[in-house]
Amino acid sequence: xxxxxxxxxxxVPALAAVLAAPALxxxxxxxxxxxxxxxxxxxxxxxxxxxxxxxxxxxxxxxPATKIDVTSADGAKxxxxxxxxxxxxxxxxxxxxxxxxxxxxxxxTWKAMSKDGHVVNGKHNFRVALAP
Amino acid sequence: MLYAGAIVAMGWGTLTFLAADSYTxxxxxxxxxxxxxxxxxxxAPALLLLLQLRALEMTATDLPLLLQETGWxxxxxxxxxxxxxxxxxxxxxxxxxxxxxxxxxxxxxxxxMGGLGHAAADExxxxxxxxxxxxxxxxxxxxxxxxxxxxxxxxxxxxxxAETPATRARWGAFSRTATVMAPVTVLAGVGSSLRRFxxxxxxxxxxxxxxxxxxxxxxxVAAVLALGWAHRRRVQxxxxxxxGGVRRELMAVVAVLLMTAVLTGISPPxxxxxxxx
Lengths: 132, 277
Hints:
The complex is a heterodimer of chains A (132) and B (277). The termini of chain A are far apart. Chain A has two helices and nine strands; from the N terminus they run H-H-E-E-E-E-E-E-E-E-E. By secondary structure, chain A is α+β, with helices and mostly antiparallel strands. Chain A has a five-stranded mixed β-sheet with strand order 2-9-8-4-5, with no helix packed on it. The two termini of chain B are 39 Å apart. Classes of the chains: A alpha+beta (132), B mainly alpha (277).
């Protein structure tokens, strides 16, 4: 009788473990998304117009939830093509510029979602100084 | 909100699964609480989705992309599905089949919640992290939810516990359940924390908002355990818990839940970058 009752009381955690098993088969992910490096990097001065913005994130962020905006010093948005990312987890998120950038200061603002749903964002500036 | 609904659903499912005959005529108050839990299990996931859309600066037209093409979105779909099921099963009258369904529904919520929280971002131990989180939620639901269901069911006039054989039986059943579920909850919670802080020093943990809040939560849980232990001793001696003590225990639980909700929205401190990574 005692064994049957104890078995019944242990049923809940045991069942939780069994039910959790299929859910646990999902792919592995890293703890908390961070920006590892960027191109153009923060506060760099480029002597040629960059072809794209590249963000290397600590985990392969889902593209539909990733956003990159580039604005010029006067607040005008610089058009970017649709974001892409290579197949490897080390590949950066890439936003290709539709046009060449003129000399000036630009701000990159980005937003991405960690696997646990936390939205992470960042912002930094870079400068383009083309030869006259 | 989601935790509150899950706790009531788990408490109801567990106690009626263990002793369906004791709950064939639940009190009106308990019925209202179950209805509220059902509503929370529907509203909370919807609110979570709306808040996430807002945080990502997405609109309703982006919804299919978010739900189908992101890991979080797929996790949310699983959560919303099981919450919808649990919202129905928590309203079922106690019986051998319906109680099993209620328990399964609540366990589904625990598993889905384990897959959508911080454990979802664990790369090194994905299975273990989610298992620990699921067991933590399930154990807490059975323990605290059981406390709430038992208290609501046995409250008499003026909020005091009626000294009847049925009341003693219900408190005895809950006490035996809590004796197992409280350690399961605490151990799973400790395991989750150790996993989350893998590679992070104690100084860094305590210096972080997450670490300080977790310490406060731990102290509150210790208070709940102490109160629960005192009640257990009274029940084992053939008495009923003191009604005021049960209310204090539940108030401490509410504080723990609020703290948990805050912790869910904060990032834990990360281990330092390994060289070459």
